[in-house]
Amino acid sequence: MTKTLLSGGVIAGAIAGLVAAVFQFFLIQPLIVEAERYETGELVLIGIESNKPDPAPNPLETPGHDAQGAENTDNLLVRNGLTVLTLILTWAGFGLLAGAGLTAFRALPGGGRIPATALGLIGFAVLSLAPAIDLPPELPGMEAAELADRQLWWVATVAMTAAGIFFAAGLRSWPGRLAGLALILAPHLFGAPLPPVSAPAVPPDLAALYAARVLSVNLIGWLVLAIALLWLLPEAGAKADADGLTEPG
Q1: Where would you find the membrane-spanning parts of this chain (predicted)?
Q2: For range 34-51, the mean pLDDT
Q3: Which of 29, 82, 164, 221 has the maximal Cβ count within 10 Å?
């Protein structure tokens, strides 16, 4: 049963990745393209001098560059294709985590049915919302702390948030709930690595809109993943009996 649950997680995650890709192209991709114009120096914030070289002329606007324009179109298709593939693989990984979480939840003595909405909100809280509180999604050109420090803090935050929710929901006792709350709050009390202080290269309103849209798309993706997972495996939402836990496959 565990293998079936995990394979269902991969399929549900792939479905969620395709849905997220649609929203990515309409809501997020235009903001990334706009931020890249600030990153290259094509656009500059008012009152801030740019020390970046002037951008090269756009070959699509220059006559006699049909071949280069076709090459840019091919590059765009490759970029979009890689974006879709990356999202599918990423959400398939999230689906594996969701399937593993359901397996662990079913093994708890007090484990019962878990609604799709609850499963989706837990996944969103652990892997999207909790890290974004101190380390919001970043656009190209934004100043950031060292990558290794951010990755370490992100992994620690996700792990501690997941453990905190597991303790609070699984132990069903006040010491367990307090321990879970302490784990959830710990990374935020410690704080994420701070970027160096410098003049912003990207408009703050553009960065805020990007973070809001990324979180919104992630919420939609998690809800789709949870609904697809429990639709593919309706028995996963309920606690298995003793025979079901030992049933092979």
Answers
A1: 82-102, 114-133, 153-171, 178-198, 210-233
A2: 74
A3: 221
